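Worked example (supplementary).
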Amino acid sequence: MIFLTYIPLGLLTILLWILVRRGAYKAVPCFFAYIAFAVTADAARFVVHTHSDAYYRTYWITEAAYDVLGILVMYEVLRMVLGTLTRAWWARLIFPAVLISSLGISLARANLVPSRLGGILLYIVIGEIAVRFVQVFVFAGLVTLAPIIGVRWRQYPFGIATGFGLYATVALLTTTKFSDFGTRFKILWGVTSLVAYSVAVLIWIWFFSVPQKVETPKFESSAPSPGELKQYKDALRRMR
Amino acid sequence: MFASILIWLMVAWGALACVYMLYCAWSRFPKRDVNADDVIPFLYPVDISLAESLLDPAAEFECRWKLGPPQFREVQRKRMRLFLELTRRMAHNSKVLVEYADAEKNREDPRRAIAASNLQEKAIEVRLYALLTGVKLRFWLLLRAEILNAMPALAHLRTAGQIDGLQTYTALKVAAAAAFVELPPDELDSLTRNL
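After joint prediction of all chains, the assembly is encoded as:
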C-alpha cells in the first residue's frame, strides 16, 4: 500500500522531465517550480516515512509550501489567460476577488465543521481548502468562459487549470463527505485523492507532451517587404 | 447552512466543468485547423457606420425630441434589436477569426505568428464586448426596461467592460488585414468587405 502512495511521485518525475525538455520553465515558471517542489517533497516524505516524528514535520512543512505554490500557480494561470483577454482595470481584481471568496468559504467551512487540529496546523488545513476552492473557481471559470470567448483549450494554462480543477473538485467532494461519514471514510478518501492526483498529473503530462509555440518577441521579427506593406495599405484604404 | 450550500455549489460547478472537459477530450477537441478559405465565406458584413449612428447620442436625442413617448419606445426597441444583430455579427466574425488565428499562431514565420496573436487578442476583446453588450440588450428587451424606468440609452453601450466596441472592432479589421496580407488582392478585398 505504501508504494501505491508514491505512484504520483513516479508520474511527477516523468512530468518534470517533460517540462525540462519542453523548456516550460520559461513559459510557466511557477508551475515548473510547483512540480519540482512536488517531486522533492514526495521524495523527502518517502525517505522519512519510517520515522514518524520526522515524517510529521516534513508532511506539514511541505503542505504549507504546497498552499503557497498552489496560489502562485493559479495566479500565473489567470494572468496568462486574462493577459490575452483584456487590459481592463477590472481584470486585475479577478484574482484577489477569487482568493478572498475562497478564503471566506474555507473559514466558513472551518466554522461549520470543527477540526481536531489546532494552532498552525489548523491554519495550514484552512489554507489548503482555500487553495482547492481557488483551483475550482479558476478551472470552472475558464471552462465556462472558453466556449463563450472562443479560445482553444489545448494550451498550457488551460491544461494546468484542468489538472488542478479535477483534483480540487474530487478533494473538496471527498473532504466534505469525510466530514459527514467520519473515520470510516478514511481509506476511501485516501484512495480517491491518490487516484485523482494521479489523473491530474496524467492530464499535465498529456498537455505538456505537445509543444506549444512560445511567441517570438516583436523586436526579433524582420520588417515586412515593400510589396506586403503596399498590400496592407491598400487593404486599410479599402476599409475607410 | 449557507456555507454548506456554497461548498456544494462549488463542487457541482467543478464536477460539471470536469464532465465538459471529458466531453471535449472524447470529441478530440473538435476545433479544426482553418485556413484563409475557411474564413472569408463565413464572415457576416458589419456596417460600422450604422453602428456609429445607433450609438450616436445626438441621433437618439433627435428621435426622442421628434417622436412622442410611445413612438420613441417602439423606435428605440427596433434600434436595440438592430444593434443586437450587429453585435451578434461582430461576435460571430471574431469567433471565426480566433479559430484562424489559433491555427496561424503555430506557423514557423514569426511575423505571421505575431500578426495572428494580435488578431486573436483583438477578436477576443470584441467577443467580450459583444457578450457584455448582448447580455445588457437582451435584458433590456426581455424585461421591457422602459416600463421600469425611462427608455435605456443605446449610446451607453459604446463601451462595455472598459472595451470601446466600435474602436476595438476597427482595430480587429486592421489586425485582420495585417494577418491576411499575403492573400491575393481580390480575396483581401472580399475579406475587408465581409468584415
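Two points are worth noting when inspecting this output. Chain B touches chain A through 57 residues (CB under 8 Å). Chain B has two domains: 1-30, 33-194.
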